Structure formats: structure tokens, C-alpha cells
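Possible regression after last week's pipeline update?

I re-ran a chain I had predicted before the update to compare outputs. Posting the input and the new output here so someone can diff against the archived version. Not blocking, just want to make sure nothing changed silently.
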Amino acid sequence: MKHTTIQTLGELKQAGYTPKTMKEELRANLIKHMERGSNPFKGIIGYDETVLPDVQRAILSGHSMNLLGLRGQAKTRIARTLTELLDEWIPCVAGSELNDDPMHPISRTAHDSLETHGDLTPIRWMHRSERYVEKLATPDVSVADLIGDIDPIKAANLKLAYSDERVIHFGLIPRSHRCIFVINELPDLQARIQVSLFNILQEGDIQIRGFQLRLPLDIQFIFTANPEDYTNRGSIITPLKDRIQSQIITHYPKSIALGMEITELEAHHTKEQLKRVTVSPFLRELVEMVAFEARESEYVDQKSGVSARLTISAMENLVSSAERRAIINKEKKTHARIGDLMSIVPAITGKVELVYEGEQEGPHFVAMRLLGMAIRKKFPQIFPSPETIKRKKIQNPYQPIIEHLANENVQILIDYPRDEYANVLYSIPVLHEIVDKYCPGIQDEERLMMMEFVLHGLAEFSVIGKTVMDSSIEFSDIMNDIFREDKDND
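New output (post-update):
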């Protein structure tokens, strides 16, 4: 239907317009996508076999939905993608504040317009991007915000009784007629406010200041909730929960690869950064592993969850760290290094909730511990495990490195220019031979990164010592470190 050529109710009738409810509209468009094999849920990764089939079933059933999951599990993003299942344009009665369908008006304004103008009633066309309304549930949300209230000034000016519908100032929900309406963090909504949603979900009634209105509102309700909120701040009251027809459980990425795909999609980098900084897939994997380690860490509150925003922010910091070094050293191009992982600590400390033991150790310690665990887990996947070498008593390929550090500490400045960085790493015996042996065909910049990774990996297995300072990382003999710590304690 060419909406640009239809401007009145009469023209709309002649064009053969047939009204559809929200649920019919969503269902019909979803079926079209499924039959074509196209994906309306763009940007939703890792849910193809779990969450999205449940969402599709809910839409086919005509259900309202509650997306239940920990923070950073794309609940709001799923809700926003549902606008792709709406018709691109729909007609509304011009001037109506409730987006009235010209064929089925529900507001007094729309009825008056139709009575006055008949088939000449002007039509406004509403794009699907306008048909999404979102409200964050907070304790201060009132019934007036959601449902509406009596406007005494309007009543006085129009000389109308308070029982007249025309003196009502409608809230967000009635104004979302023929729209998708989302309430985020539903448990934060006070119980008495949740009660006001009962009849809207079930019968379409709203009650304002004791005056009951029969408004057959046509709304697709989507709610989101965090399981932890049920005990921390509130809960979804049972009668309301009973009226929400489908509850869909979300989850974190089930594999490192899926997590990396999400991070790459969501992380923001400027054009200048993309031109100047190269980040190895290996480093991207390490960043993702930090989040997976956090989701299993004894120091992190698992009930609170570890959001995907951790790795997104971490990746942005990693790139910025490399960019900063390139700017300082006046280098047009640079590669991110293992040392740049130290820059992601602020992204970790602000994104994890710690249990008592974690609070005792401190957020910085926990962040460094998570980084170390990711390196420790990845190291044996590429290089010989120091634990295996020790257990089987086989020749230690790392011995020349250990002996070198026994005589001379190695310090790597985080902002070293490329050539100085390479000189320090190549000064360590057999380091590049180990990398070439276990990473055949590796390119120069990748080789330097893996040479530094070997040092970090050995430190995580307590083969050599490592001290992280503000602007540098120092590697040393592990025994010297132990003696130094004992001396400091004395």
C-alpha cells in the first residue's frame, strides 16, 4: 500500500485496507521471514538454538513475554529487534494521541474526528520505528506515569467534569496503543504499580482516579528481569507473573568463539584506530577468556553475572592502549601486545560484583588474577606445559630463559617503541626459537607478541617471576623474587 498517496479515511477504504491486531501483525510477518529463511533478529548472536526459538513460539502463540536473565544477555536488544516484525507503515487518525486505527478508533478524540469529517478524516502514517516504547522500572515510577491521571487544568479550561475522558492525561501505556511496550527490570517496579497492569494485560481496562475506562488497548508487552533482583530489590508479584504468558530464559555465550563474535560486533573503534592498530585474533580470544574465567571465579558473585559489556569495554581499552603507544612514539602503525592487556583492568574492575573474599583481596587483585588465569589456561594449548615437563621429568626447553633471568632481570615498558620492544625480547635466549617451533609460519609482529606471551605464561606457572608496575612489566628469576618478598616482609 502506497502510504504517501493515501491521506483520508475514504482513500484508505478504497485501497482495501484491512486492520490487523499487533499479535496478528507480528505473527504474519514472522511467518514470512521463516518461510523466506531470513533473519529478523539481526545482531543477536548465540541464541539461534535456544532463546530465539522460544521468542518465535511466543509470537506465534500471541503471548506477552518476560525475558529473564542476568545483566548483559541482550534482553533489551531482543525486544528492540521485534520492531522488524511490524508492518513498515500503519495508518492512524491524524491528531489522535492514542495512535487510533481509522477503522477501529478507541479514543474520544478519534471518534469525534470521524463523526465530524467522515470519509474525509485525515490520516497520519506511522513508521514502525515509532512503534517501540521503552520504560525502565524504578521505584519512583507512578501509576500516573504508566496509566495516566486527571488533568485539573484541562478540566477547568474546558469546563468538563473529571469523569469526562477528555480531561485525562494518558500515560505511557495507553499512548503505546498499537506499539511494542517494554518495561525493563520489572522487579524494580513497586508492587502497587504492578497491580495496575493486571487488567491491561488481561481485559484492556484502565482505571484512573476511580473512573474506569474501557479501552481495548492493542499492545505487545515485553518485560525484562534479572533473577538476582528477586532477592535484592523486589520481585514480580505472582498474579502479574501469571498474566505474562511466556517466560524466556536468556544466557551468556556458550563458547569463546560466540563471545568473540559478540564483542567484535559491539565494540566501538574509530576509523583512525582501525587504520592504526592491528589486534591479533589470539589477543581477542584472551580478552574473551577473561570474561569466561570471571563467570567461574570464586571471587566474583555468580548470581550477579558478568556482562558481555566487560569484554566490549576491555577490547576498546586494548585498542586505545596500542593507539596511545603509537601516538607517543609517532608510529603510523602498531600491533596490540600482551602488555596491553594491563590496560583492560579498569574495564574488569567496574564490571564484576565481588563476593566477600574478592572484596578482601580488592578489585585490582581480582582483575589481575582473572587475566593471569586466562593466560595460564591458554598457554598449554600452544606451548609445552611446565607442569607436564616437571611431572614427566623431561628436558626443559625453557631452561635457557630461566638461567638468563637468574643473571639479569628483563623489563618491558608498556610504551616501548617497536624496535626497542623487539630488541628486549630477542635478547632472551631461545625465546624466538620456541615460538617458531610451536607457532610455525608466524609473521614478525605476531612472533613478538607470542614471545612476550611465553614470558607471561611461564610467570603464571611460577617458572619465572613477574612484577607489574605502572608503566612496565619486569620478569625475573622466581627464587630472587621469593627472597626479595621475604626481605620486604622482614
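Follow-up from reviewer: compared with the archived run. The chain has three domains: 3-249, 258-381, 384-490. Marking as no regression found.
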